[in-house]
Structure formats: structure tokens, C-alpha cells
Amino acid sequence: MFDSNFFIAAAENVKEMSIGDAAITAVFGYCVVFCGLIFLMIVLYCTGAYFKSKNAKESANAEAAKKAVPETAPEAEKELPLAPGSAGHVKLFDVPDKEAAMIMAIVADKMQKPLNELHFISIKEVK
Length: 127
Fold this sequence. Notes:
The chain is mainly alpha-helical.
């Protein structure tokens, strides 16, 4: 594909770099690499700070939910805070929890809706 004359002609056209030009090129290359590394470090620091603040906000909300439940109330009267996106409690009549969860998942799948957008009032086994 290439003959030897091509490489000889290319070698003759190469300009010799002086030591000063080589030093400037090297310093410029190092600056580009370090600027890229610094930029990458800044991006990673910002994403870490974002997720730390998100985690701190969630833990603060959990603490507030714990404080909302009075400690002096009897166990039967304590209402646990609802999960985000949940629609409340479901009354189960002769249906185990596992089967109720499967029924809710099947209904959500058949309706093509997310489970947290559906509100189940009660589930009763028909005999």
C-alpha cells in the first residue's frame, strides 16, 4: 500500500523541534491532563455532595416521622408513618399478607399502573 519513498518523503518534511519547543509542548500537555483531572474531581465532588444532602434530608424526614409518634401512647394506638407513595392500610379478611401482596401486584400489572397510584380498601376471599 505504501512504498518506501512515502516514508522517506515524510521523514524529510518533519521539522526538527528544539528543546524549548519540546518543553513548551510537554508543559502544555501536562496542563491539559491536570485540568481534565481537576474537572473530573470537581464533578465527582459535586455528585457526592448531592447524594449526601439527599441522604441527610431523608434521614431528617425519618427522624421527624419518629418524633411525630408520641412515645407515651399505647402500642395499639400508635400509627406508623406511611411509606412514600403508599395509599394507606388495607383490611384483609381471611387472606394472608403474602397472597394479598400478590393480588395487589397482579391488579397493578393488569391495569398497567404503578402500585403506589392504586388504593386498595379491603381484600376478601370469596368462598
